[in-house]
Amino acid sequence: MRLWVDHTTHYTFSAPAARGLQRLRLTPKTSAGQAIVAWKIGLQGARLEVEYDDENANHVTLIAFEPGVTEVTIRCEGVVDTSDKAGIVGHHAGYLPLWHFRQPTDLTATGPRVRALVGGLSGKQDTLEKLHTLSALVRGAVEYASGHTDTASSAEAVLAAGHGVCQDHAHVFIAAARALGVPARYVSGYLMMKDRVEQDAGHAWAEAMVEGLGWVGFDVSNGISPDPHYVRVATGRDYRDAAPVTGIRYGAYDETLHVTLAVAQQRVEQ
User: Fold this and answer.
1) SS3 for 261?
2) What average pLDDT is seen over the chain?
């Protein structure tokens, strides 16, 4: 499947921004099940400083605001070919050892609620079956609903709230998988919804290491493993490692953020 992505992030400041730096993790990875045909990032009100691959092998674009700007626009547009690998990404690659992905973070720490969730798993299942069961348990414990959590909500807080979004589902799944001793990581990317081109936001899911298969994806929010409708962009131990945009800004001003995202299938000319 060939997917076209158009993702625009627009900032408006109430007063000129003195200066700012932002890390963009907005360039998809070429990996099992996807190949980048074309991808570009356009900037208005900011300039490119440097590009590099981080410790998770994410491609990072570092940008700086133009002095005194009141608006900054970041537009990513590209085409990605995807294929169905049943969610299997394969062998581990990158600069970090697998044990790194067994370590808890602030967002994926194991507490009593995570341990209780893991306690509901059967010891008779193999790892892959157990992870699919875990995905269903997380989905049952955390109803999909916005407005109950934010980017700083931990897995324990999400389980306590009983509501969350895709980011929260991923964090709870990752925390539980690590409690089982399974390496797990967070994935940020895009999902083409079948009923529309304009999307509400980017998407997030989890991947876990399964012996004999390598990394395998689990989209808890939709109850499936990623298929050709998904585009992987960045990975990490949690959201903070894979966030699309992070950075610092200086100046006494209020900020308004507006994001538009379109994902659509393109016809491949023979």
Assistant:
1) strand
2) 94
Which pLDDT belongs to residue 197? 86
| Cα–Cα dist 57/232, whole Å | 12
Burial class (CB in 10 A: 0-12, 13-18, 19+), 166: buried
- Taking CA 176 as the corner, what is the angle to CA 211 and CA 229, rounded to the nearest 5 degrees? 70
- State pTM to two decimals: 0.95
- How many other C-beta atoms can be found within 10 angstroms of the C-beta atom of residue 19? 14
**CA 130, 192, 155, 174 torsion-angle sign:** positive
Those residues of the chain that have pLDDT short of 50 are: none
Residues 6+ apart with CB under 8 A from 124: none
Task: State which H helix or E strand residue 218 sits in.
Answer: strand 214-218
Alpha carbon 179 to chain centroid, angstroms: 21
Kindly report, residue by residue over 179-196, the tens digit of the pLDDT: 999 999 999 999 998 877
How far is it, in rounded angstroms, from Cα 135 to Cα 217? Answer: 11
Strands in 148-229 per DSSP E = 163-164, 184-191, 198-199, 203-210, 214-218
Between CA 263 and CA 196 the distance in angstroms is: 8
Residue with tokens 């997380």: 138
Helix or strand (DSSP H, E) at 196: none
The residue type at 152: A
Euclidean distance between CA atoms 156 and 134, whole angstroms: 16
Side chain identity, residue 230:
Y
Q: Which domains does the chain have, with CATH numbers?
A: 2-82+245-266 (2.60.40.2250), 88-242 (3.10.620.30)
Task: State the Cα–Cα distance between residues 90 and 155, nearest whole angstrom.
Answer: 26
Q: What is the dihedral of CA 230, 233, 237, 241, to 10 degrees?
A: -140
